[in-house]
Amino acid sequence: MNLGEKLYQLRKAKNLSQEETAEKLNVTRQTISKWETNQSTPDFDKILPLCKLYEISTDELLTDQIIEKDRIMEPNNQNEEKIKRARAVSTSVFLYFISIIWIIIAESIEEITENLLVGIFMFICAIATVNLIYQFMSTSNKINQKSKKKYKDIDSIIAITFFLIYMIISFITMAWYITWLIWIVYLLVTKIIHLILELREK
To answer: Domain limits at 103?
Structure first.
C-alpha cells in the first residue's frame, strides 16, 4: 500500500470527506486529493497533524509498516460490527428479563416443581450468557486490549463496586445459587459504559 492509498483508507476509516480533512489540516481540498492520488506528498509540517488526526504513528504513515486491519476498517464494516454488538446485548438483556418473568409466572402455578422452575430459569440465563460471551470474545483482541488499557481505572472501580454488592447481597440473602447473576449485570454495565465513553469521544 503506497502513501496515497494509505491516506485514503485512513480518511475513510474516520468517515471524513476531503473537505473536512482539508479544514482540519488547514489545507485545500485539492491538496488532500493530490496526496491521496500520489500527485504530491504532504509537507513535513503536515506529517504530525496527519498522524494525530488519523491516530497513527509516524512510522505507520511513512514506512511500509502495515496498519492493523481494525485501524483502516471501512465505516460500513464498523457500523455492522456495532450493530452486531448492540443486537447481542439487546437479545441477552431481553432473555434475562424473560427469565425473571418466568420465575414470577411459574411460582403461581402449582403443577410446576421447584426443580423445573429453576432449571428453565438457568437454561434461559445460560443462553443469554453464551450469546454475550460469544459476541465479545469474537471481537478483535487488539480492540479489547486497547479498550481495557484506556478504561483501566473505570473498570477497576466498577469491578470493586460489583464485588462489594455481590458479597453483601450474597451474605444477607444466602442465595449464592442465584447471586452470581450480578456478574452478568457487571459485564453488561461495563460494556455499556465503554460504548458511552466511545460515543462521547467521537
So the answer is: 79-139
* Beta carbons of 103 and 121 less than 8 angstroms apart: yes
- Alpha-helix residue ranges (DSSP H) falling in 55-140: 58-62, 75-106, 114-137
What single letter denotes the amino acid at residue 32? I
Using CA atoms, how far apart are residues 194 and 64, in angstroms rounded to an integer?
A: 32
Half-sphere exposure of 2 (CA within 13 A, CB side): 8
Indicate whether 61 and 22 sit together in one domain.
yes
Distance of CA 83 to the CA centre of its chain: 11
Convert the pLDDT of each residue in 100-141 to its tens digit.
888 888 877 877 787 887 788 878 877 877 777 776 665 544
* CATH number for 31: 1.10.260.40
The count of other CB atoms within 10 Å of the CB of residue 69 is 10
Query: Which of 71, 88, 113 is the last residue in one of the domains?
Result: 71
If you count them, how many residues does the chain have? 202
CA 23/CA 32 separation, integer angstroms: 10
| CA–CA dist 86, 88 (Å, integer) | 5
Task: Indicate whether 147 and 198 sit together in one domain.
Answer: yes
Nearest to 10 by CA among 61, 62, 65: 61
**Radius of gyration over alpha carbons of the chain, in Å?**
24
